[in-house]
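hey m, so remember when u said the C-alpha cells were messed up on ur end? i reran from scratch. heres the input so u can diff it against urs
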Amino acid sequence: MAYIDEEETEAGIGMSEDDLQNRVRQYVSDAIQYIDDEISPLRAESTKYYLGDEFGNEVDGRSRVVSRDVRDAVQSVLPSLMRVFFGTEKVVEFVPRGPEDIAQAEQATDYVNYILKQDNDAVAIFYSVFKDALMNKSGIVKWWWDDSIQVSTHNFEALPEVAMGLLLEEEGVEAVSVESYPDPNLPQEQVETMEIQGMDIPQLYDIEIRRKKPINKVRIATMPPEEFFVDAAATSMTNAQVVGHRTMATISDLVAMGYEEDEVSQYASDQVEFLDNENYIARHPDSSGAIDFGQNQRRVQYVEAWCKIDYDGDGIAELRKICTLGENFHVVNNEPTSDIPFSIFACDPEPHLFFGSDLADLTKDIQRIKSAVIRGMLDSLAFALYPRTGIVEGMVDIDDVLNPEVGSVIRMRQPGMVQQLNVPFLGKEAFPMIQYLDQMKTERTGQSAASQGLDPDVLQSTTRAGVMATIKGAEQHTEMIARLFAEMGFKPLFRGLLRLVIKHQDQERMVRLRNQWVPVDPRVWDATMDVSVNVGMGAGQVDEKMAMLTQVAARQEQMMDKLGLDNPLVSLGQYRTTLSKMLEVAGWEDANQFFKPLPPDWSPPPPPPPGPTPEQEMLQVQMQDIQVKQQIEQEKVMQSAQREQAIDERERTRIAGDQALREFDLEQKYASKVDLELLRATLAEQESSRREG
C-alpha cells in the first residue's frame, strides 16, 4: 500500500520516504517507551491494589489479609456513573444553530444515540471506560468507520439450478464447492423417458459459498490502557506531537483492512501481546505471550499514529494519520487528516498534565494501612486463641507438644515442664483506627455506607433532611466526575461521531427511530452542530427534579385549560416533553411506550366562538323574562277562551234539548204534526228577543 502523497512528491517539496520513516519511528518509539516506563508501572500498581494482591512484605505464620478499599471505592462510584449517563433515553443531544436546523438536530440526536446503543454495545463499552478512568488514570475510547470486509461461509443443499444461479449473482458471493446430482423426487418413468429422448435430467446442487461484505458502520471501542500512547510533553489531544493506538493484529484482520498478505506476513511474530508493559502483566499474570494460532492468525504489531509533521515542507506541521507494521514501525500508510479519533475520560485531571489521578491513587495508602491494622488485629486474636507454649527442653515429648488435637496428652518427666504463654487480645484497640481510615476514605472519595443508603444507624436516627444532606454531599463528588466525563469525554466523542457519519455514510439508511422506520441521510447535516450531554442525577436530585417537573406539568395544564391548546405560552408538544422528562427521571427510557409522538402536521383545533359579554348576558336574561311573561299571558288568554267556548257549548246543548222537548209536547198535545220549521223559527226569534232584552 502506497504511503507517499503523489501531489506532494510531484511538487518536489515533500519529505522523503527515509526521513518520514525515521521521524515516525522516533516519535512512536519514544511515546511507547514513555507509556511503558512511566505510566504503566503506576497503572500496574493500581491494578494490583484493585485485585487485592499481596504487598510483598508478608511474613510466614502471620495474617496475609488484604483490605479491598480501592475496589470498594471504584465499585461504589460505577453504578452512579452508569445511571447518570444511561438512565436517560438520549446520552447526548445536538443543539441546532437556528430554527431551520431543529428537525436536522433532532434526527442527528436520535441517529447518533442509535449508533451508540444499537450498532455498538454502549453499556459494556462505557462500563470498561469508566472503570479504566477510576483505576488506570484514564479511560480511552476510539471510534472509526469500519469498511473492512466481513467474510462468512454458508452451505446450501438441494438447490435447483435457477436458485443456485440467483445466489451466485449476489454481490460479493463466490462458490467454494459445488456438487450436482439428479433430482431424486422425479418419477423413474419420467427419467427413463428423458434419457431415451436425450434430454437433460434436472439437477439439484449442494453448494458452499463465501460471502464477502463490507461492514460500513461506525465502530466504538474501549482501548486497553497499554495500547494507547502519547508523547511525554503532551498536556492534551490538541497539543500532542504524536498520539496513537498499537495492537497485535492478526494477519487475517490486516488483510480484511486492505493490506496485502505478502507484505503483512513478513512482519509477523509469535508474540500476541505486549509483555514489556507492566499493566498488561498485572492484569494477565499467567500470560506467556506466545500462542500458535496458525499462519493467518499470527500477530503483527500494527500502529495507527496521528502525528504532527511538516510533510509538505511549508514550515507548518500538519496532522497526518500514519500506519506502521512490525516492531521497527515500517510505514505502510500516510494520509492527511483533521480529526484524532480518541476521547479521554479522566475522573481527576491535573492541570497542564495529560494524565491525572484516579480513585486508586486516593485510596491505595488507606488500603495498605488498613490491611496492616487488620493483620495486626487478626494476629492478636490468633495469639489469644492459640497461645504459644513454653517447655523445658528435654523434659517433655516434643511431638506431644506439637500435636494440635483437642484433648491430646503431653508427656512430661515432671510437672510444670509445659506452660502456656497467654497473650491478651488487643484487637479491640484497632477498631477506632479502622473507623478513622474509613472516614478518611469517605472524605477523599465521597463514598460511604450512609451515602449509599446502607447505614441503618443513619437512616434510623436522622431526619429525612439529614439523610438527604448526607447523600447529596456524597453525590457532589460523583457529580463532579460525571461532569468531567461529559465535557472532556462525551462531547469530543459525539462531535467525532457526527463528522464521521457525515463524511463516510454515502447512502441513505433505514433505521427505527422513535418507533418509526425513517430514512437517515447524514450528508445534509451540519457538521458544526454543538453538543449537549444529558447528565443525570443522584437520588436527592431525582426527587427535586421530579417535583419541579410535576409543578411545570401542572402549570402547563392550567394554561392549556384556561387559554386553550393554541395559546402563546405552552403547546401540546411542550407538555408531552414534560411528561417524557418525568418518565426519564423515573427510569423509563422510552416515553413512546406511554405517549404517542406528536405528528409533525398536527395543529390544535380552532377555538370556539367567543362567548357573550356581561351586557349581552343581562339582555338575554331580560328577554327570557319577557318571553316567559308573554307565554304566561298567552296561556291565560287561551284558558279563558277555552272556558267561554265550553260555556257556549253547554248553552247550545241546553237550548237544543229544550226545543226538542217543546216539539215533543206539541206533538203530544195536538196529536198532529206542526210546521216544525215555522216552530223552530219562532223559537229562535223568541230566544233572540230574550237575549236582547
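this time it looks ok to me. The longest helix spans residues 614-670. if urs says something different then somethings off w ur setup not the seq
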